[in-house]
Amino acid sequence: MDYFILLTVSGISIGVIYGLIGMGYALIFKATSVVNFAQGEVMMLISYMAFSIASSWSLPFWSLLGVCVVLSGVVGLLIERIFIRPMLGQDVFSTVMVTIGMAVMIRAVVVLIWGADPMVLPTDIGDSGVEFGMVFLYTAQIYAIGFLAVCVFGMWAFLRFSRMGVAMRATAARETTALLMGINVTRVYALAWAIAAVIAGVSGVLLGTIYGLGPDMWTQGLRAFPAVILGGLDSVFGAAISGILIGVLENLSEGYIGHGLKEISGFLVILVVLMIRPYGLFGTPEIERV
Amino acid sequence: MNWFLKGALSAALLTVGSVSATAEPGVTDDMIVLGAVDPLTGPPSLLGKAHSLSLKVWQEDVNARGGINGRKVKIVFEDDGYVPSRSLQSLKKMVDVDDIFGLIGTSGSSQLAAMMPLIDEIGLPSINSMAVNSRHFNPPLNSLFVVGPTYCQEIAAGMTYLVEELGLKDEKYAIAFQDDEFGDDVRCGYLQGVEKYGLNNVLELEFKRGQKDFSAEMLKARAAGVTVLISGGVVAEHSTLLKEAAKNRMKITFLGAHSAHLTPVQALAGSAGDGFYAADYVPALNSLEVTGVAKFMELANTYLSESEVKSLNRYALSGFAGASMFEHAMTQCGEDLTRTCVIEKLQNLNGFETDGLLGPVTFGEGVRHAPTAVMVLQSNAKDSTFSIVSERMEVD
């Protein structure tokens, strides 16, 4: 039983990272119908920026995170303004291709600026952690769990109660009608990209604190992709829950079966789930996938 | 007039004939041009940069000493980004455009494999002092010389140390290895050690290269009661395994191949990076008691910038040793420097010493691999150094 609990808890701790990245995918899709294939790369970019900030000024972790939140928002807005807005009115597929191009470009820029060597993200929480009985969790892992909870609740409240959140849902439901109702659709899009970048940025800082930085960090974006498919491409909440499910499933499959099943277990599950619920566990049935 | 023209023409032809008969590519009266292909960008640039910097140090040093038999050395560096097709492209460019005489930087294992047909075709004297794989010398190419043991040989020697010196015979052994050629080679050494000493192999964990999270793997190892883990991961994977073991409060002895003998491994692992072992065939950069290391560091501090010195690691020592061997062979050839002669002189190396950078190097007729002796190093994470904890061990 102890073994099962340990596998589950450690699965949750990696799953929350998948969940956070997945939320970014889902939010952008919900608002713009675009799958942003550069979500993992945005996460990597912000974590490297955090490295430069942390190396230049010895900021406490929370201050560093605060700076990164602002920075991520700006990066998200810039991406939307420079790469995505010119694509408005174009085929969704073309915009998706732009995100793929952006992903490749960000990878190259990261290597160009920071080099390809693995690096430590110097934060003051470092290797510290807390022991809960037989389970030890790094401080950054605990923060990640807390941040996911805050994000889920925050996004629910935002989409449910705020004017902008309602506008975002309206835009997601039918863009033309939203425009006719006086909603500033471009602002909605910009906000979606900014929020997604903030979530990616925070998860990048936390991931970098736990595992260090490397130019292959973006692959975590790919690993989080099954989560967002499982949850439903347009379900921000579903992505968060599914991220945890995938993390736990990966750990249990490795712990009890092994033989590389960890790598494919997430994809196996989405194959099965999509056969029964093609729109994911929490998604809306009318989704058009690309 | 007719006689004069005929005479002039004959003299000109004779001159051209004699030049083409003696001139070697990349060799002029005052210069020898050599080539080096290294991964200077991409994830393995950590290795490539250090290797190329050591060649730069060697070039400056040789030239400051007056060159080789009066000829200065010039190295043309090419970055292959660790992509085999680019390695071959770089070599073609160096052969056709830069007209190199020999190759002293051969990038990674697969990268060299991609270049081997061309090396063999033109008989280019080449020395591989960076990534050793049995494909490089089995079957041997006449002009390609490989220095250093394979990962398989390294790990097997490291396990000899664990069992014979540390007395870890009755422990529970496991291996975590990545799903590529490197991982397979490490596993080869592990299985040799297990078989040789009849060790208790309780777990073999294969993981995907680039994997970040090892929580399930290390929990599995804990459940199996593993006390000795052989790591077949490179920098980030190795350090994450160490961190996970520490996180799970596992008292475990770690042994890695020479890819673990890097300061970023210590830095990424934090306090968990203290005490692990690495099997290597070159000493640590901080082993200044070794003459070759002290000499190299002195030269590095003379010819490299402060930031370049910081980029050095164990690949700089192996690169410098390889270049020294090439220098020895070229010097032995005298003024009449030819590729054939250098190949012959390299082949004749017998117990060649590199001031302790490598164990004695020996090649021979049809022998193009010198699996130099291995030592075990231990990590001191607090001051980012490694200590030599074993004598050099000959490999099988």
Describe the protein in words.
The complex is a heterodimer of chains A (290) and B (396). Chain A is mostly helical and 290 residues long. Chain A has one domain. Chain A has helices at residues 2-32, 39-56, 61-84, 92-114, 139-161, 163-173, 175-180, 185-211, 219-231, 236-256, 261-276; strands at residues 129-132, 135-138. By secondary structure, chain B is an alpha/beta fold. Chain B has 2 domains: 31-149 and 287-365, Response regulator (Rossmann fold); 152-280 and 377-388, 3-Layer(aba) Sandwich (Rossmann fold). Helix content of chain B is 45%, strand content 17%. In chain B, the strands form 3 sheets. In chain B, strands 7-6-8-9-10-12-13 form a 7-stranded mixed β-sheet, with helices on both faces. A 3-stranded parallel β-sheet of chain B has the order 2-1-3. Chain B has a 3-stranded parallel β-sheet with strand order 4-5-11, sandwiched between helices. In chain B, helix 2 packs across helix 10. The relative contact order of chain B is 0.13. The model of chain B is unreliable at 13-21 (pLDDT under 50). Chains A and B meet through helix 1 and helix 10 of A and strand 7, helix 7, helix 8 and helix 9 of B.
Question: In angstroms, what separates the terminal alpha carbons of chain A?
Answer: 42 Å
**Shape field of chain A:** globular
Major beta sheet of chain A, specifics? 2 strands, antiparallel
Biggest interface, chains and residue tallies: A-B, 37 and 35 residues
Low-confidence stretches of chain A: none
CATH architecture of the largest domain in chain B: 3-Layer(aba) Sandwich
CATH topology of the largest domain in chain B, what is it called? Rossmann fold
Share of residues in helices of chain B = 40-55%
Element-level helix/strand string of chain B: HEHEHEHEEHEHEHEHEHEHHHHEEE
Q: What value does the average pLDDT of chain B take? A: 91
- Largest β-sheet summary of chain B: 7 strands, mixed
User: What strand order characterises the main sheet of chain B?
Assistant: 7-6-8-9-10-12-13
Rg over alpha carbons of chain A? 19 Å
Low-pLDDT stretches of chain B are 13-21
- Computed over alpha carbons, the radius of gyration of chain B is 23 Å
Structural class of chain A: mainly alpha
In percent, how much strand structure appears in the residues of chain B?
15-25%
Please give the count of helices of chain B: 13
- CATH fourth-tier homologous superfamily of the largest domain in chain B: Response regulator
- Average pLDDT, all residues of chain A: 89
Number of strands of chain B: 13
